[in-house]
UniProtKB/TrEMBL annotation:
Name of the protein this chain belongs to: GIPC PDZ domain containing family member 1
Signal peptide (UniProt feature, chain positions): none
PROSITE patterns the record matches: PDZ
Taxonomic classification: Eukaryota, Metazoa, Chordata, Craniata, Vertebrata
InterPro entries reported in the protein's UniProt record: GH2_GIPC, GIPC1-3_GH1, GIPC1/2/3, PDZ, PDZ_sf
Region (Disordered): 127-146
Compositionally skewed regions (Gly residues) per UniProt: 128-143
GO CC aspect terms: cell cortex; cytoplasmic vesicle
MF terms (GO), sorted A to Z: signaling receptor binding
Length: 222
């Protein structure tokens, strides 16, 4: 559907454009669930900001808080707009889709056909603000405030994520620390990461460095 630059999250402000550096990471978001939603246009403005990928696919970039669309939980940032009232929008630019939505008569119901990005990383993604609350499970330690050891380990693992993958994600780092703090060796950590976060295919040297960061935090070597 689209690609984001240097983040695995559905962040339409990071939509891949024409400028790519040698150290940039590209994350592909493929098609997930298709859905058809009826919307009653009670206001002239629906509260949507539309963008496109330059290849004939238009997406929801932002949803204004408190707007008509904001009250419809099935509609989320990152959804591709396939059709309005049965009219296909494939091949349309974002401004054409925005114009069609604006021209819809107020006080009537219309139908949106959407496709959401596949939620391969829902377990690590925290959708907030314009991203709308997600329905998938979220990662974290599952406990309250992390200990001093965990805070240090999370900070170091977050640095490693940036070094190896070009992203910073404290939730992901916290999950990795939680998975690794009771493991006896790097192999056990690798098995735990593969089971829970296998989609990332972390390289062996990265896993070894994570193991070392957790071990250093345990003995206060920071």
């Amino acid at each position: 559907m689209f690609c984001t630059l240097n983040t695995h999250k559905v962040d339409m402000d990071k939509l891949l454009g024409g400028q790519i550096g040698l150290e940039d990471f590209i994350f592909a978001h493929i098609k997930g669930q298709r859905k058809e939603v009826e919307v009653f246009k009670s206001e002239e403005a629906l509260g949507l900001t539309i963008t496109d990928n330059g290849a004939g696919y238009a997406f929801i970039k932002r949803i204004k808080e408190g707007s008509v669309i904001d009250h419809i939980q099935l509609i989320s940032v990152g959804d591709m707009i396939e059709a309005i009232n049965g009219q296909s929008l494939l091949g349309c630019r974002h401004y054409e889709v925005a114009r069609l939505l604006k021209e819809l008569p107020r006080g009537r119901t219309f139908t949106l056909k959407l496709t959401e990005p596949r939620k391969a990383f829902d377990m690590i993604s925290v959708r907030s603000g314009g991203g709308r609350p997600g329905s998938g499970p979220q990662l974290g330690t599952g406990r309250g405030t992390p200990s001093a050891f965990e805070e240090k380990a999370i900070e170091k693992v977050d640095d490693l994520l940036e070094s190896y993958m070009g992203i910073r994600d404290t939730e992901l780092a916290a999950t990795m620390v939680e998975l690794g703090k009771d493991k006896r060796n790097p192999d056990e950590l690798a098995e735990a990461l593969d089971e829970r976060l296998g989609d990332f295919a972390f390289p062996d040297e990265f896993v070894f460095d994570v193991w070392g960061a957790i071990g250093d935090a345990k003995v206060g070597r920071f």
